[in-house]
Design brief:
Length: about 400
Amino acid sequence: MPNQDKTKIERVLIATVGYTEEPLQYSIVEHEPQGLLLLASQDSLETAASVRRAFSDLRSQILVIEDAEDLIEAFRAARKAYARAKQWEAKVVIADLSGGTKPMTAGTALALSGLGVTFSYVGGLERDQRGRVVTGSERLRLLEDPTERFHQLELRAFKNAWNYRRMGAAADSLKQILQRESLLSPSEKRYYSHLLLVVQGLDAWDRFHHSDALQSMERGLPVALAIAEAWHHGSKVRVLSGLDAQLDNLKKIVEKAGYPTYALLSDLLANADRRAEAGQYDDAVARLYRAMELAAEADLYHRTGIVLRKSESWPDNLKHLLQERTEQLFGLQSVLDLIFDVDVQLGNRGTLAQKLRAQKVQMGDILRKRNQSILAHGTEPVDRDSYLSFRQVFTDLGLEAAPAWPKW
């Protein structure tokens, strides 16, 4: 082999070492690395040293696995070898699994899977009575990383992003899978492309773009669910069917766009809960503050058909009052006061709006903390206890959030 420039190592071979040199030598000749990292047990140290001497023009190192039957120790040694290859600034890392004990090869494969490593194995056309490859009959075989074939890293990232409601990141993971078109069967490509529509729909839904969300969900969800059912993948069916059951509420919001409905209120409360679950309590409380106002408006609308900001819904006997007061609606208090006065004019008692107005007086500490939030008028962050206290007000009044989106 020609002498290699030790200052430039673009290709590194990590190899598990057994008792025989020939398969390892064959692998080195075929791969032509500039760096060599040998994973040897105490019993195969002599073999590793001999190979190292035979290829003295390569930068090399032997990493010793004290217990050749310890899977974890082999895993750690392989990770150290990979780190050393990166220290050498290798652009290509190859792992040859031909030698060593089964735990050594298994631990190395586990450690290096999903890291962009190319795996190889030296087999042969002939073997002796002990099952060893006969010298001269060696054949090198490249092995596909199963984590790439089955998209393990991307799917793990996808599920994690979904469960933490980071739908943009979840979409990116699916796009990475779809970029590997050659690895996808037609049904897999169809499934992941429609699942991407579902994720994009959830992202729009979470940003209150309900119409866009519904369009995307209606395009993606039926197909993705049908494929999951055909595959008999329980977790996929559970998650996607759980979402399908929630589309009715989304449809109600879209059908009544611009109106203060209970469907919209339950959706807003669910959105607040998602923010709180992610530890974004300032965002969550800001949504609850709007939800309190929306609850009063929804109650008025469902009882009377009146929408404060739609003059065509106003009854004749209230037009003068509403015309004058709606021009001055600048916050929760003004909304609650106006709805209270509308109910007085209509002779209504014990309404939700009236209860919310009374409740607001009792919520002095909670609302002060909200007003001190950096998203309101102050500089102080909102804590979890403040959110839970505010959230309990809605529960006590029988105002529940829409069901949480299912998790993987």
